[in-house]
Amino acid sequence: MHWSKKQERGTSLSLKITAFCLRYCPTWLIKIIAIIVVSYFYLTSPKEKAAIATYQQYLGSRLSPNPFLKRGSIFKQFMRFADAIQDRFLVRQGKITYEQLTIVDPDHIYQTIRQGTEGLKKGEILICSHLGNVEICRLLSTQQNFVLNILIHQKHAVKFNQAVYQEQGNINMIQVTELDMPTIIELSERVQRGEWVVIAGDRTPVLSEKVIELDFLGHRALFPQGPWILAGLLKTKVNMLFCIKKQHGYELQVSSLTPVIQWNHQNKEAVITEHAQKFIKALEEKCLEAPFDWFNFYSFWK
């Protein structure tokens, strides 16, 4: 089943209750509530458990020692996802702050970000994934004069995004099903104003056939062409963004993928394949770094 066909579980009321508990309940009570809620979803989500079991099988063969051999490894991954959701609310409430964020920036991209939107001649693209907790990057937009345009599927997790991102002036949630021409024109105008675009590189489009089949963790999987097509149309720099939770707090890892992507009708597929493979290699490395932080709870491989 395609990831977009999964129904959003939870109501607006339940999300408001979650936000209330995180704001006012003591830590020990929040942990108990989280275990109860995660246990319910764990027991009622056989397809999601099977998907995570497949991921752990493929990644575990590359890890020594293999942490997935321990009993309860799938439940632990469910709990990590719940922990990530809690942290998204805590960021919004100001309980996780910019000062708690460690930035790993080997290519000095953050220096560009610190200039703010007004100081940039042109915005850039950030390719993210559902590995780790990339939503923490919104801390950058609150600290700097820095506008993020985050592309999301228009029907997927709408209630959750509204609950987490409401009243965030420097973050634009652009809900799209396909990267059609009006959307591309709008994004081009935003990039020209110095705004940045965030798009996931691990979720295939809902309606089109614009996908590419490549090896990921030793097995064939489908990846979207959209990020690389968009990069070629916007003619701007492309970077990769990961955010992984460490013992000391979150580590935001940003690195350059390519100064520019150029393609034409003759070499389009080859260019897309080249850059998608670079992203997939980086994604595999991050899976090894944070093996329990893979949050694609659907059948990812063919």
From TrEMBL:
Keyword annotations for this protein?
Acyltransferase, Cell inner membrane, Cell membrane, Membrane, Transferase, Transmembrane, Transmembrane helix
Record bears the keyword Acyltransferase: yes
Regions crossing the membrane: 21-43
- Work out whether the entry's keyword set contains Membrane: yes
Q: Which CDD domains match?
A: LPLAT_LABLAT-like
Alphabetical list of InterPro entries matching this protein? LipA_acyltrans
Biological process GO terms, please?
glycolipid biosynthetic process
GO MF terms listed in the record are: acyltransferase activity
A GO cellular component annotation here is: plasma membrane
Organism superkingdom: Bacteria
| Subcellular locations according to the entry | Cell inner membrane
Q: Which PANTHER family match?
A: LIPID A BIOSYNTHESIS LAUROYL ACYLTRANSFERASE (PTHR30606), LIPID A BIOSYNTHESIS LAUROYLTRANSFERASE (PTHR30606:SF9)
What's the protein called, per UniProt? Uncharacterized protein
Q: What's the source species for this entry?
A: Basilea psittacipulmonis DSM 24701
